[in-house]
Amino acid sequence: MSKEVKNIDLMIIGGGPAGLTAAIYAARAKLDMILLENAVVGGQVRTSYTIENYPGFKTIEGGKLADIMQEQAEELGAKIDEFDLVQSAKLTDEEKVIETDSYIYKPKAVIIATGAMPKKLPIPNEEKFSSKGVHYCAVCDGAMYGDKIIAVVGGGNSALEEALFLTKFASKVIMIRRFDYFKGEKATIDEVLNHPKIEVLFNWDLVDVEGETYLEKAIIKNTQTNEQKEIQIDAVFGYIGTEPKTDYFKEDINLTKGGYIIADESTRTNVKGVYAAGDVREKQFRQITTAVADGTIAALDAEKYIVEKRRDK
C-alpha cells in the first residue's frame, strides 16, 4: 500500500530545546508544521537531573523544563509526533522529501534539530555489558545501583554533574580522568573535589570492564607510568563526548569530519530551506541557551523562506 503524501510548510526533526523552540515560533506564525521525535521529547535536557544555568529558573529538573517547553509548543498549536519514525530524507534546493513509517512528507522547509548522542566507551567489552553495568544516563539508570560503587569516565561538565547526581545512590563514586585536570565550571569542579563520596583518579584511563553476567570490575591504566590495575566497581557511566545524529542527511547536507552539520550563524545549511539547530550544528558552545537561540533563528528564517516560496507560486 502506497503511503499518503503530505505537503506542509515546515518539518522539524528532533524534539530537544532547539526543536521545541522552533516549534513554538512556527506555531505562533501559524505555519502548517510538524515536529518528529524518534526518542523522547526534550532530548538530553530530559535526562539532566538539575539545571541551574537556564535564565528564569534558579534551579529546575531537566524533565520538568522539557515538559514546560513541550506544553507551551502544543498549546500554541504545534503538532508533535513521537511515534512516526523517519526512514529516509532527500533534501535539495528544489524539493524536500521526508519518508516516515506512515507518510511521505514534502515540506517547503526543514529544520534539523536531531541533537547528538553520547559516545560509547572505546573498550572491548562495551557491548557485552551494555545495560548490565555500562551506562550513559545517570538519571535513567543510576537508581539501579543503590549502595554500590560506580565509576564515571570523563572530565567535562556532564561527567562532573552526573558524578554528583550518582552520589545520591552510590556508596562511592570513582571518577576516572585520563588527564590531571577537569574542563568543567569551577564551582562544579570544587564540589566534586570536596565531595566525601567521590574519589578522583587523575591520569588514569579505562581499558576494559569484566564480570560474569554483570559488570564486576574495571581495568584501568595510568597515562603517565603505564601501570595497569583492577578496581572493583558495579557500574560505569561514560561521558566522553557526543556524536551527532546526521546519518539521514549526509548525502545532501555538508558535514564536518565529526559528522556535525555545517551551517552559518543564520543556521542555514548548503541546501536552500534547510536549517540546522542545536547540538547537531557545528559550533563552539553547546548549551541549552545556544540550542534555544538556534531554534529561534531557524524558525524565523524558515518562515521568511516559506512566505517567499508561497509568493513564487
From TrEMBL:
Q: Name one GO cellular component term.
A: cytoplasm
Name any one Pfam family assigned in the record.
Answer: Pyr_redox_2
InterPro entries attached to this UniProt entry: FAD/NAD-bd_sf, FAD/NAD-binding_dom, Ferredoxin-NADP_redctase_2, Pyr_nucl-diS_OxRdtase_2_AS, Thioredox_Rdtase
Biological-process GO terms, alphabetical: removal of superoxide radicals
Domain FAD/NAD(P)-binding, by residue range, is 9-295
Q: Which SUPFAM superfamilies match?
A: FAD/NAD(P)-binding domain
In alphabetical order, the GO MF annotations are: thioredoxin-disulfide reductase (NADPH) activity
Listed under catalytic activity are:
[thioredoxin]-dithiol + NADP(+) = [thioredoxin]-disulfide + NADPH + H(+)
Which UniProt key words apply to this protein? Disulfide bond, FAD, Flavoprotein, NADP, Oxidoreductase, Redox-active center
Cofactor binding annotation: Binds 1 FAD per subunit.
Query: What cofactor is needed?
Result: FAD
Q: Which PROSITE patterns does the entry link to? A: PYRIDINE_REDOX_2
- EC? 1.8.1.9
For this chain, the family text in UniProt reads:
Belongs to the class-II pyridine nucleotide-disulfide oxidoreductase family.
**Subunit description:** Homodimer.
- Spell out the protein name for this chain: Thioredoxin reductase
Record the organism. Answer: Clostridium intestinale URNW
